[in-house]
Amino acid sequence: MISKRILNIFPKKGFSLIGPLILFFLLAFILSFLWLHDREQKRQSLKELTGLMTEQTSFRLESWINQRFTIADYLALNWTEQYAQSSQKFKKDVANLLKIYSGIQAINWIDADWTIRIVNPLEGNEQALNKDLHFHPAQSVKTAIQKAIDSKKITCSPVVPLLQGGQGFASYRPLFQNEQIFGFINVVFKTDTLIKYCLGNPFLRQNFKVKITTLDGDSIFQSAPSLIVSEYYQESLVKIGDQYWKVTIDPTENFIKSQLDVTKDKYFILNLIFVLIISILIWNVLLRHYKLQQSEQRFRSLFESANIWIHLLKTDGTILRANPIFFQQTKIRLDKLEGKNFTELLTAKSQRIFKQWLMHLTEQPEFRSELEFKIKGRKSGIIDCSGVVIENESGKSIVLYSNNVTDKKRFEKALNESEEKYRQIVEQSHDAIFIYRNNKFLFVNESLKTLSGYDKEELYKIDIFQLIHPDDRDKLVNFANARKKGSFSPHQYTTRIITKSGKLKICEFNVNTILYQGKTAVLGTVRDITKEREAHFALQESEKRYRNLFENVPVGLYRITQDGNIIAANPAMLKLLGYDSFDELNKINFFSLYTDKKTYTLWKNLLKFSEKQHTHETRLKRKDGNIIWVRDTAKIYRDAETNEVYFEGVLEDITEQKKAKDQLVESERRFKEMANLLPQCVFESDPKLRLTYVNSFATRLVGYSQHEMLNGMNIL
């Protein structure tokens, strides 16, 4: 029934289904190919998007947590000299670090007996204070602490129930003195806080399922209870301290459906039906056009005079005659004009206009319009055409007078295109552009609408100075009055505006007086520099903060070139080396301070071929000639723009530590020599009563060797 109705639209005579079917199958094949290609492209794009979200999430997770693990290293470096004598200093520095590095639940000090002695902040973490971690309910915590002692490196526990409540994990940075553990820096994280800071991307939370597990399969976080089953899921490993976590991300069912919905079969079937209808319509149009070309008549004789084109036409538009000027200007030969319809000299649009008149000759015997003509299939110009129906013994015919106005129209078009081009430039400009006169807008572009929050209709109604901040309004009114009088007024200035919503923005104005619509007006451009100003102030504050840190940190900081030229050094560095000013220190080579040339050569090569941070202890010569021991922690730095290579490092004076250590070794040696001469038992033990030293008399008395007694024997 539907197919019969479609076929009734077209004339039955001369209509065949063979042509439309061939065209349909061709278009259907192309549509099917495009449909399959589009479906595959969307699937691949979804997979790539999932991979990108996995990479971004893994990088965010790894960098965010590991960056906060480095706090433990920083605190450990300062424990002996600063925090061991003053827990208040430790608490104060931790409080400052927690302000800088958000998301940390607590930073604690654990003594050698595994008891939490200091908790920062105390509020919310009271339950952890003075807890002995030997009795922690999670065995993995004790394993992580013991691993830290054995490896002498920072370790990380898996996710466990925290003493202060909730789920989370912690790192343990061991501190040793004379090869003996004397405590740990403990950084604690809550899982809820981790998710808030690392997985807070709304797009990720709404459209993807996230699962984080250990390599053993223990769950750390899972955003949805359903298992990951789609073909688009992606996995990535992240290193958290000394452990590896597996991050798995899979798009939600709704997101997959929204991305692939356009490829469903129902849309494909509807497109096939649409292609079938279009094929029938195109074929019918081509068939009619072919029949129309067959019915055109040949040209008739020519007119002999007139400086404009004159054509004698039949009432159906067939050209009977044309005057010589037509052939001279168009270069069309007479034999090429025979049998042509006048509409064939026109473009498609002009053909429709002229044919419409031909269809209503009785009601409208006269015609006047501008038509576009073409020669050899190309548009050649515009004619101002006037026609009238005449009647003679041979019947009705049409006399058509055409004046070639191509040059005039080409000039007008060029002018319009120029105006349109500049109008588009103004409308699409990122800067707001306006013209005003007598405090009223005459023109505003889209950018000013976006900047101010007002619609164009609202802007045309309000006073221009209504947008200006009240504190700046008088100044700009004075500028405008001076400009109107011809006095000096700045063309460029910065001021504040208030948007429709009440938001304050800082803008840069550029204004000039112009002639608009025959009268004097003001043309202006506005650029929103609010973010630039905020960024500038933030940069200044950041530079001031970090400069203050550089100047006041109690350890020596430096930057040198590969050749040892000193580029930067803080006051602590100058004091450490005994120099009065940086200019004085800058005159010497950094490597000349080394007393052992072989040591700095090995250290320099190690930094060159490794991107990691390296620490070594060496002796340096001060300005006064004294030799000091320093701990040098340095890393290579490559400038991204110039590709220059620098060494950046931290120098700590450990001379007194070295002296104390030497004195301790000498004291122990003398003690042992004296003890071995005594005819009595002499021994030492640790807090757990395990023997750490016995003299010769004791070994002879009990009959054990010194090795057997010191290898785990208890004094009891």
UniProtKB/TrEMBL annotation:
Indicate where this protein resides in the cell.
Membrane
Is Signal one of the keywords?
A: no
PAS domain mapped to chain residues: 418-476, 542-594, 667-716
Q: Start and end of every PAC domain?
A: 491-541, 614-666
* Any GO CC annotation of this UniProt entry: membrane
GO BP annotations listed:
regulation of DNA-templated transcription; signal transduction
Source organism of this protein record: Caldithrix abyssi
InterPro entries hit by this protein: Biofilm_reg_signaling (IPR052155), CHASE_dom (IPR006189), CHASE_sf (IPR042240), PAC (IPR001610), PAS (IPR000014), PAS-assoc_C (IPR000700), PAS-like_dom_sf (IPR035965), PAS_4 (IPR013656)
Q: Which residues form the CHASE domain?
A: 111-199
- Superkingdom field: Bacteria
Q: What is its main location?
A: membrane
Instruction: Provide the protein name.
Output: PAS domain S-box protein
Residue intervals passing through the bilayer: 15-36, 267-286
- GO MF: catalytic activity
Q: Which UniProt keywords apply?
A: Membrane, Transmembrane, Transmembrane helix
